[in-house]
């Protein structure tokens, strides 16, 4: 009896979570876990003050990860799954309701040696509550798209090596803190071409607070609007 309960509990946990496993460059699949700082498991981060918020557990170093070369203006697609399989289950599991955001941070030297600490992150994409009357969230679209969401890297971003940080913020148990679940995937990219923009930057961890209305929120109480943490999107 006890064993069965433990098994059921751990199976439910494993099924509930997911990781970023693929990036696509202008529609071309780059292969499983390539150019990605892979976390040890599919658990979410819940402590917004932890360095795990930067690039997931173990993600402050990318010394064993390759860096993909992309021109500024490239359309990058991030693809998430619960397990190491693309079919046979919901990509990120329908119970995860919440926001999808993408940030970029320019490394002082190489992306592989960049820890992503300090005020270095620029938000380039954010999608949250899409339809209050049907409770449709950005996460629902990710499931519909088999785990994928896309963003165009702004053409005005200066050339250099970057971390690309995708975040899925699941809010199904977020009415008290800690509760909100941060799923984070970081890829390493060398951006070529580009421009001379000087975008606004925030720290991760740093900018997110437990009391942010986008982090501690009851999404099951007729929520009419939602403001994701981390400020406005910079559109280039
Ligand atoms: C980016 O690429 C994806 C996948 O090919 C596509 O669905 C999406 O429409 C593209 N986005 C833009 C803005 O071009
Ligand atoms: Cu989960």
UniProtKB/TrEMBL annotation:
This is Uncharacterized protein. It comes from Artomyces pyxidatus.
């Amino acid at each position: 009896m006890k064993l069965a309960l433990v098994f059921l509990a751990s199976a439910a946990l494993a099924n509930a979570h997911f990781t970023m496993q693929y990036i696509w460059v202008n529609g071309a699949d780059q292969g499983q876990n390539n150019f990605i700082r892979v976390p040890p498991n599919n658990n979410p981060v819940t402590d917004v003050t932890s360095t795990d918020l930067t690039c997931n557990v173990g993600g402050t170093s990318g010394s064993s990860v390759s860096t993909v070369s992309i021109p500024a203006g490239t359309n990058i697609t991030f693809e998430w799954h619960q397990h190491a399989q693309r079919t046979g289950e919901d990509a990120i599991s329908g119970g995860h309701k919440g926001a999808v955001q993408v940030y970029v941070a320019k490394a002082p030297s190489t992306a592989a040696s960049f820890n992503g600490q300090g005020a270095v992150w620029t938000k380039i994409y954010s999608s949250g509550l899409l339809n209050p009357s049907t409770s449709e969230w950005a996460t629902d679209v990710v499931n519909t798209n088999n785990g994928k969401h896309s963003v165009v890297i702004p053409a005005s971003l200066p050339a250099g090596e970057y971390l690309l940080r995708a975040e899925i913020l699941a809010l199904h148990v977020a009415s008290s803190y800690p509760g909100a679940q941060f799923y984070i995937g970081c890829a390493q990219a060398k951006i070529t071409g580009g421009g001379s923009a000087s975008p606004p930057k925030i720290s991760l961890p740093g900018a997110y607070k437990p009391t942010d209305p986008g982090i501690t929120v009851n999404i099951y109480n007729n929520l009419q609007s939602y403001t994701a943490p981390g400020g406005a999107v910079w559109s280039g």
